[in-house]
Design brief:
8 helices; globular; hydrolase; signal
């Protein structure tokens, strides 16, 4: 029984905040729209930025090298497993297993394998104050483990709504229906990573989507970027800022290793 519980927790944790790095595809700029593209590799060296290029309100999507991150990426079929907010002055607010916390951007970049920044085009000067206040009031709030656990079956069932040939209105309506049944609506005062980011934007009067934040994962935020097609309607597409770090997982060997080389 304990083993089954641990397995369920791992699957649930994987569904809430993670995806899969694609080291083959290159995210080339341009007006072409791609249906839920998972390409996340910098197109060239100019795509790499320093933390000094960030602005308050920037959304940071990342992936780690651990088992939980890999499981989330597998469940959500996306190259990111975590979402966080840049508050300015080197501070990053995020919801993790220990609760909502603030840490330094340098620490986050050092701990993650991939970190990429996106910007809301309507975020204006002065909105950083209420966003930082929201993060301050949220510090220590417990992680939404229940919401994350419910995302495990939802991440599988939602795929029937995401067929490329379906019209946008049909995809949106289908996904809202499945989410309402599987996840419900409303908030219990707890957050998982992407939910925290979306709630912060709702708090400052700049909601990224009309959908319940509990329904969205880091993969959904990734698909809100310009040139991609989100499953749920968004109010404004996110603008790509750049990669702060890109150390993807190593590619599997092209041919079997000899037993003498195994370690």
């Amino acid at each position: 029984m304990k083993a089954l519980l641990m397995a369920a927790l791992l699957v649930g944790a994987c569904a809430g905040c993670a995806t899969q790095v694609d080291t083959q595809r290159i995210a080339a700029p341009g007006p072409a729209v791609t249906f839920q593209s998972n390409a996340l590799r910098p197109a060239n060296g100019e795509a790499m930025i320093a933390a000094t290029a960030l602005m308050p309100g920037d959304i940071l999507l990342s992936t780690g090298s651990g088992l939980t991150s890999a499981g989330i990426r597998l469940m959500t079929t996306a190259p990111v497993s975590h979402a966080a907010l840049y508050l300015g002055d080197g501070d990053v607010a995020e919801a993790v297993g220990s609760g909502v916390r603030v840490r330094k951007i340098d620490t986050m970049v050092a701990d993650e394998a991939v970190v990429v920044a996106f910007r809301h085009p309507d975020f204006q000067s002065g909105l950083d104050v209420p966003m930082r206040e929201f993060a301050g009031r949220s510090l220590g709030l417990r992680y939404d483990y229940v919401g994350v656990m419910l995302h495990a079956p939802f991440s599988l069932q939602r795929r029937v709504c995401e067929l490329p040939l379906l019209p946008e209105s049909v995809r949106d309506g289908c996904l809202r229906g499945v989410a309402t049944i599987q996840l419900g609506s409303g908030s219990d005062g707890r957050f998982f990573c992407s939910q925290f980011v979306l709630e912060a934007y709702r708090h400052i009067g700049l909601p990224m989507t009309d959908a319940d934040p509990r329904w969205l994962s880091p993969a959904d935020i990734l698909h809100m970027r310009e040139g991609d097609v989100p499953s749920l309607r968004v109010r404004r597409s996110l603008v790509y800022v750049g990669h702060l770090k890109f150390h993807p997982e190593p590619e599997p060997p092209s041919r079997p290793l000899l037993l003498g080389n195994a370690r």
